[in-house]
Amino acid sequence: MVREEEIRELAYAIWEKEGRPIGREVEHYFRAKQILEKQATERIIELAPPPPVFKLTSISPSTKENMQAYCLKCRTKRYAKNPQSIQMRNGRAAIKGTCPVCGTRMFRIYKV
């Protein structure tokens, strides 16, 4: 949130820079407010933590036997092609692969 005092100071600086024109106070005020809000937003974005990343791990042999996932395009359960074990953002383990028939991405959540 931008403070009113900061907006007034910047609006005054803009007013002086433009040669102290008469009757443009509102325009200078809103331009100053827009500039300060943009700077505040950029600071927030810089301080925000980076988004979580999927962690690829190796698939255990016992899990490879249960690589069936549901293909939404074929509407049937199939064994995933090129299966990869991943960890979702919420921490649950899942398998990501492609359908060997149509090439659609397949996904299945499993217990570790």
Helix content: 25-40%
Strand order of the largest sheet: 1-4-5-6
Separation, N- and C-terminal Cα atoms: 45 Å
Q: Give helix and strand order, one letter per element, not per position.
A: HHEHEEEEE
User: Low-confidence stretches at least 5 residues in length (pLDDT < 50)?
Assistant: none
Strand content: 25-35%
- Domains counted in the coordinates: how many? 2
How many β-strand runs?
6
Shape: rod-shaped
Briefly note the structural class of the backbone.
alpha+beta
Radius of gyration: 28 Å
Described by strand count, sense and barrel closure, the largest sheet is: 4 strands, antiparallel
The whole-number mean of residue pLDDT values reads: 81
Give the count of helical stretches.
Answer: 3
Key phrases:
two-stranded antiparallel ribbon, 4-stranded antiparallel β-sheet, single chain, 112 residues, rod-shaped, 26% strand, 3 helices, 2 domains, alpha+beta
In short:
The chain has helices at 4-17, 25-47, 61-64, and strands spanning 55-57, 68-71, 76-79, 81-87, 93-98, 105-109. The chain is α+β, with helices and mostly antiparallel strands and 112 residues long.
Write the layout of secondary structure elements.
Blueprint: H1 4-17, H2 25-47, E1 55-57, H3 61-64, E2 68-71, E3 76-79, E4 81-87, E5 93-98, E6 105-109
Antiparallel strand pairs: 1-4, 2-3, 4-5, 5-6
Task: Give a description of the structure.
The protein is of the alpha+beta class and 112 residues long. It folds into two domains: 4-47; 55-109. Helices cover 37% and strands 26% of the residues. The protein has three helices and six strands. The strands form two sheets. Strands 1-4-5-6 form a four-stranded antiparallel beta sheet, with no helix packed on it. Strand 4 (81-87) and strand 5 (93-98) form a beta hairpin. Helix 1 (4-17) crosses helix 2 (25-47). It is rod-shaped, with a radius of gyration of 28 Å. The relative contact order is 0.12. The model has no long low-confidence stretch (mean pLDDT 81).
